[in-house]
Specification:
Elements: H1 7-16, E1 29-30, H2 35-43, E2 50-54, H3 60-68, E3 71-76, H4 82-88, E4 95-99, H5 107-115, E5 120-125, H6 131-140, E6 147-153, H7 154-161, H8 171-179, E7 180-188, E8 193-194, E9 201-208, H9 219-229, H10 237-245, H11 249-258, H12 272-285
Parallel strand pairs: 2-3, 2-5, 3-4, 5-6
Antiparallel strand pairs: 1-8, 6-9, 7-9
Length: 286
């Protein structure tokens, strides 16, 4: 079906199927015709590649991905959209829709069964309320994928793509940078969606690292330390770490100083390398 970005076509299709938008699922369908082709192109959809899509909407991005890639597998949570997608994507024979929750399905099994040895990329227009959980699950699962290209709230894009150690960095910045090289591709205005959200969006691409950027003994402890350090942004890292990890504050300060850092350092000023050194100093003390 053509013109899937046309408001009239969208309304007609949805009306035929009795579909109404769900605020709970954060549904905002793309109506700007230039957005999805650009996501597909800059996300790396191409011949010889498979695409795992998170959420299909009415299939606007799905169709653009299928035009370029060998196969597209989409995990769609909303069962009400399945008959809609049967209609809008009827012209394609290289698309498979899996009804499921991206936070619960067996991603390794899906990749193995659907794509085999084919290189795989991930693309998605993510609902704002599950942006971080979805991105972190895709990264933490250490899937055999090349990259993750997603549309997120513009403010979230700034945080996700910030340099670790910069003012805009946070715990999620560190987590993303640990697994991938993140870059913002382009902005998308709120008027590009139906219904229009109250904020603008941005498309970002995370290129998966082959090797982690720092050498640490215990990754779980590292991320616990990072979350704790950033939990009290207006206070020093020692306050957040001692509170979050249940460690004596003087012990934490000693580890910070042993890492060659000032005792009053704040988490957002720490580089990935400094966080790694601090983690190892703290780990020695537990």
């Amino acid at each position: 079906m053509s013109n899937l970005s046309d408001i009239g076509v969208i309304k007609s299709v949805l009306q035929r199927h009795g579909f109404t938008f769900s605020k709970a699922l954060g549904q905002n369908f793309i109506i700007n015709p230039s957005v999805c082709p650009r996501i597909a192109e800059e996300g790396g959809a191409r011949e010889g590649v498979g695409v795992l899509e998170v959420g299909a909407g009415i299939g606007v991005l799905t169709a653009e991905l299928a035009k370029r890639a060998d196969k597209v597998v989409c995990v769609e949570l909303d069962t009400r959209l399945l008959p809609v997608l049967d209609e809008t994507l009827a012209d394609f024979d290289n698309i498979k829709i899996i009804n499921g929750d991206i936070l619960k399905v067996d991603l390794h099994k899906i990749l193995e069964e659907e794509f085999g040895d084919m290189p795989v990329i991930v693309c998605a227009n993510l609902p704002y309320y599950i942006t971080s959980p979805v991105i972190m699950r895709l990264l933490e699962e250490r899937l055999n994928i090349e990259s993750i290209t997603v549309m997120v709230q513009k403010e979230a894009a700034v945080r996700l793509c910030a340099d670790v150690g910069s003012r805009d960095s946070g715990a999620v910045t560190v987590a993303v940078d640990f697994y991938a090289d993140a870059n913002k591709l382009f902005d998308v205005s709120r008027g590009s969606f139906m219904p229009a959200p109250n904020v603008d969006s941005a498309v970002i691409r995370l290129d998966i690292r082959k090797d982690v950027p720092i050498d640490i003994t215990d990754e779980r402890f590292f991320f616990s330390m990072v979350r704790s350090a950033f939990s009290q942004r207006r206070k020093t890292a020692s306050n957040g770490i001692s509170s979050g990890l249940g460690m004596n504050k003087q012990t934490v300060i000693a580890a910070i100083e042993n890492a060659g850092l000032p005792s009053t350092v704040r988490a957002e000023s720490l580089t990935m390398e400094q966080l790694g050194v601090l983690c190892e100093e703290l780990y020695k003390l537990i």
